[in-house]
């Protein structure tokens, strides 16, 4: 078991430096963090935990506790990878793909609408409806969207 340094600023800098290095050199890391940012944006639980292989690997590599690594990863995502409503509307097909892997159609629609400012909800609903019609589970989305419109 590793012990976190008493200087949390040092831990923060070490984790962030590794993340930024990975993001610069690895396109799959960039894509993963964009996906994690989307999940965080609409209020889904983090897709990783202290006992995940990658978290343990990072903790060992940095000589930090897994708890510190998870905290810093979540903080990095909240600070750097949040989507705007406009980005969400523009890339709703991809957003749905990521979100459906982590929640039901009801949770996805509810999360998207909770995140969206009131004035942008018509745009989000329109993009959501269009993207949902292209999916195999379009019927489930149609039921949820119909319920929201009533």
Which key terms come to mind for this protein?
single chain; 150 residues; mainly alpha; 2 domains; 9 helices; 73% helix; elongated
Notes on the protein architecture:
This protein has 2 domains: 8-80; 85-149, no CATH class. 73% of the residues lie in helices and 0% in strands. It has helices at residues 8-25, 27-41, 53-62, 66-80, 85-90, 92-100, 105-115, 121-133, 138-149. The N and C termini lie far apart (54 Å). The relative contact order is 0.12.
Topology at a glance:
Elements: H1 8-25, H2 27-41, H3 53-62, H4 66-80, H5 85-90, H6 92-100, H7 105-115, H8 121-133, H9 138-149
Helix pairs in contact: 1-2, 1-4, 3-4, 8-9
Total discrete domains: 2
Structural class: mainly alpha
Rg to the nearest angstrom? 18 Å
Largest sheet: none
The count of helical stretches stands at 9
Q: Write the element-wise H/E pattern from the N-terminal end onward.
A: HHHHHHHHH
**Basic shape:** elongated
Percentage of residues in helical conformation: over 70%
Number of strands: 0
**Amino- and carboxy-terminal Cα gap:** 54 Å
Average pLDDT rating: 86
Classify the beta-strand content into a percent band.
Answer: under 5%
Low-confidence stretches: 1-5
